[in-house]
Amino acid sequence: MINEIATYLLGPILCYLVGSIPMAYLLVKLVKGVDIRTIGSGNVGATNAARAFDPKHRMRVFAVVFAFDILKGLASVALIFSLVHKLSNPESIAAMRVCYGLFAIVGHIWPVYLSFKGGKGVATSTGVLIVVAPNAILIATAVWLVTVLLTKYVSLGSILGATSLSMGHIGERMANNVNPFGKVLATTCFCLLITLLVVMRHRANIKRLVKGTEARIIDDKG
Fold first, then answer.
1. CB under 8 Å to 104, separation ≥6 — which residues?
2. pTM (2 d.p.)
3. Which has the closest alpha carbon to 121: 45, 59, 208?
4. What is the DSSP code string of 55-117?
5. Where does residue 220 rank: exposed (0-12), middle (13-18), buried (19+ CB within 10 A)?
């Protein structure tokens, strides 16, 4: 009974609480004394955190926050899961890893510490996917990087990267003669859900991109 409680209740709660840690908010608040939700886009994420600093420090701030948010997802499906799970069935383990990762992402997007108003979940999702779908996240990261370098739009990179994530996972599974909706169904559904979540969280960015008013990487407009 205790093992079941740890696996199915304690683990997901811990992942949610870890995912809720708002590094972008904490860094800006501690260093600049400013609530990140009142500047730029108001988003509690790496790009907006960087906007609170002068140009020479922005990329460093972006890297620190982005890396921390990745580690939240990575820790949830690797460290926390390994500490509490008591499962032996490979398919059950894969499904529960996805569950733990999802709770970490939900924590980042809707953090209990900030009245459930957080970031967009891109970095934390990346950390989770490093464990549950490493090949797919490599494809998505490459798409994100190329898009950002070419267009200077982090939001566009995130949207296209998230879209390529699901396509990459399904394509890679099929190329290896593995039914993406068979034994790896949990991972496939997770990738599709992440794509949907990221696109939905970028609705305002999509509108600005269409209008031509979206801010490029690390400028002051939001």
1. 15, 16, 18, 19, 72, 73, 75, 76, 77, 124, 127, 128
2. 0.86
3. 45
4. HHHHHHHHHHHHHHHHHHHHHIIIIIHHHH-----HHHHHHHHHHHHHHHHHHHHS-GGGTT-
5. exposed
**Residue 222, amino acid:** G
Return d(Cα 44, Cα 28) in angstroms, integer. Answer: 10
Structure tokens at 163: 């879209």
Maximum separation of any 2 CA atoms in the chain, in Å: 56
**50-60 pLDDT tens trace:** 989 988 899 99
CB 65 within 8 A of CB 44: no
Residue 22: alpha-carbon gap to chain centroid: 13
Tokens 């499904």 belong to which residue? 95
Place of tokens 């990487």: 217
- Specify the length of the chain in residues: 222
What would the pLDDT profile of 57-107 be if each residue is shown by its tens digit? 999 999 999 999 999 999 999 888 887 776 667 777 888 889 999 999 999
